[in-house]
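Researcher: I'm comparing several assemblies side by side, and this is the next one on my list. It has 729 residues spread over two chains. Same procedure as the others: predict the full complex and return the structure.
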Amino acid sequence: MGKKTRMTGARALIESLYAEKVDVMFGYPGGVLLPIYDELYDADIDHILVRHEQAAAHAADGYARATGKVGVCLATSGPGATNLVTGIANAYMDSVPMVAITGQVPRPLIGNDAFQEANITGITLPITKHNYLVTDVNDLPWIIKEAFHIASTGRQGPVLVDIPKDVTTDEIDFEYPEKVDLRGYKPVKTGHKMQIKRGAEAIIKARRPVIYIGGGIISSNASKELLELAETINAPVTTTLMAKGAFPDTHPLCVGMPGMHGTKYANFAIQESDLLIAIGVRFDDRVTGKVDSFAPNARIIHIDIDPAEISKNVRVDIPIVGNARSILKMLVEFISELNKSKSTTTQWMKKVEKWKQLYPLKYLMDKSLKPQYIVEQINELYPDSIIVTEVGQNQMWAAQYFKYTQPRTFISSGGLGTMGFGFPAAMGAKKGRPDKVVFDIAGDGSFQMNSQELATVVKNDIPVIVAILNNGFLGMVRQWQDLFFDKRYSFTSIDDSVDFVKLAEAYGAFGLRVTKPEEVGPALKEAVDSLRPTVIDFVVEREENVSPMVPAGAAINEILDLEA
Amino acid sequence: MKHTLAILVENKSGVLTRVAGLFSRRGFNIESLAVGVTDNPEISRMTIVVSGDDHVLEQVIKQLNKLIDVIRVSDLEPGETIERELALFKVKVDKGNRSEVMQIVDVFRAQIVDVGVKSLIVGVTGTNDKIDAIEKLLRGFGIVEVVRTGTVAMNRGAKTVKPGK
């Protein structure tokens, strides 16, 4: 480049997106976006027209998680922009790289309560990593450049760019900047060498170490380095919901998920450990349970890219700030230099192994159709799928009963817990990874929050499979009412909402209903082989509970079996 | 425990909202806030007095540093810092006590900045404590109106709060 070309702001936006190598985006047009949409009409970008802006944000999120690239969504001013809010908040909580572009009313009208005006930069202030209102067309290229830079570096997250309509029609001598220079933003990359050394020494001394990993392993592509650490020091690895797939569930050192619906053995291991090696995690309350009783005997090493996470919820003994991947590399080197012998943890691993045998995840299989069985069947027939989930019981079963072996194959709304996330996110994941079979493991409640996207997947031929674990309840809330509110099922029954098979068919998708265990496998095959967007209505046992469970406010070793 | 933070920020619209929003969202208490441009017109300096224990303070600083428009945050050391606040007091006076008020003003090295028939305005700069002290004394005469700036603060000696490279 280097040569300036005269063009409109709308064209400059498209050129900027090209420069950022954006090939897919999810959006919905509107009045103030007309100049941008006119450019998109023949742009070399695969624009997916959604049916609700919330789905555009979730789809961009799912795309980002499946590919590691920045997800892009576009919505008009006012209601279009506010409809993105849930999706942006969701991406913020789970540190997903996303650029959300919104149209804004023309500059002279800003602040006048104009038609379809909303102060979206104000609204999204606490749920974006950063945001911009473009007040001059000449600022547009560097703002887009900065937006992508900020979204994709350091602790990743969503950035919103709000563009007034008259900025998109103003003309600019376009030149895309080559680099950004933000004096207020210099994310730490490599960890402090002395701290890493201290970490290595603590690891050598530990007799009962536990590696506790989160989404940071996936964002930093550190799965390989993690595997090396775990095998070098021979320690159990517990993977949070956000880390599913970052360490293979099939590996002998894997102890599954910690916390509220984690495995008993992961929780027991944490509680008895003398050293917790926490990597890319944030000690969420769903993991720690009663925080004062969390890992009471352990020193804690905390590796994280975000200094603000250090000692936020739990006091940390050895903080190491930086990119997990580069830190793990150095950590393993130091440990190898110190000649760690695996035998120091042999006793510990025996104990962990014993817990594993004594307290496996289990459910009672009878003649009825159990949701856990469906997840296991998907795993058995399509182990290389990308599994996206909704939120609630479906999400926990999908996390517990599918064996994830690759990063970016489990996509779920962890922090915000957004019902309605799964289906559009699955659509985004499938756009990013068309080579993969993509399932949305759904509940009948969550699916209905964004089922309008059936139109999008059919029109754009995005063959995702929605596996509804249909129990006619808002199941997780019902479970709490069952356990803590004397089975008073206040407004949680949603049975007979709709015929999901007919709903699918009404949109031109493939619909199937399954009521018996023996029908599960054949239905899954039929769905995958159809190569069509499919909804499978699995009519499951209505009052199945997610087990085990740590009651709210309890320590994580006070974990209850709930299976019948 | 009170801390005085010197915060260098980009001199752009919306930055104050970002900083203030962060304090309220994270549940941190601002005791006072003052902001103005620095010798570099692209950079503003905020002085924020915040109360809370060390853990709270650590979180405040880390969260502030995460804001893209925040260039530098410095926790000023109490003994090594000059702090000043400006206040204006409109005080009710009559013939009988006018001179008494003026004596107090002298003692505090304050100034009478406006004189009316029934009131006068006292302007005073100083530390937060000094201003509290004169306010207490003036209250005896009847204060009609008070306006106080937030604290501004600067390191003593050669030490500075600068943006760095």
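Model: For your comparison table: The domain at 371-539 of chain A is CATH 3.40.50.970 (Rossmann fold).
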